[in-house]
Amino acid sequence: MVEMKNISGLVLASGTSRRMGRDKAGLIYDGNSLLDISVGQFSALGLTDIHINNRQNLTDITPNLGPLGGIYTALQTYPQTKYWFIIPVDMPLLTSDVFEILLAGLKAANVARFEGEIFPLLLKTSDDMHAGLAKLAQDKTRTYSMRAFIDAYTTNILPIPDRHRPAFANINTQQEFDALPNVEINVFKI
Fold this sequence. Notes:
The longest helix has 12 residues, at 34-45. The protein has one domain (4-61, 75-89, 103-178): Spore Coat Polysaccharide Biosynthesis Protein SpsA, Chain A (Alpha-Beta Complex), CATH 3.90.550. It is globular, with a radius of gyration of 16 Å. α2 (67-77) crosses α4. It has a six-stranded mixed beta sheet with strand order 4-1-5-7-6-8. Strands 2-3 form a two-stranded antiparallel sheet. The chain has six helices and eight strands. With 190 residues, the chain is an alpha/beta fold.
């Protein structure tokens, strides 16, 4: 199994937050911004190489590609990095157990993800993946999707244990944010 010290973390936080109406990274949940929670999730795992894809840190090389743009930018900027845990900034309830399941599930695959979900995601990069992302970034027809990108590589799709289902809450609207539980369910503390 891959050791945590060999994995980099990527927080995708460069979205437009149209449905929310404001930058989701700055929303405060349980006393911390969603961005701080995301970084804390990786830090709690022991990851020390953590990157934030947003307008201030790791800016998209090719704008308007959505999550693929952030992943493309990270892989182009840090080509030596072989393993990436990737999360969007709007999943504050992810737990260490979820990451451990992904890590154990990578095995011989290039991608580990959960059934019915794109994120969180664990990538084992390859020259082929770098080339595929570069091709998508140059595609003027904009006929790309995260699912199509992932499906192009050997992927281990893992079932979500029922007890971890709440961790997959994805916050896109004020109503979804307001519906987050007021009680902690193994949320990382910073």
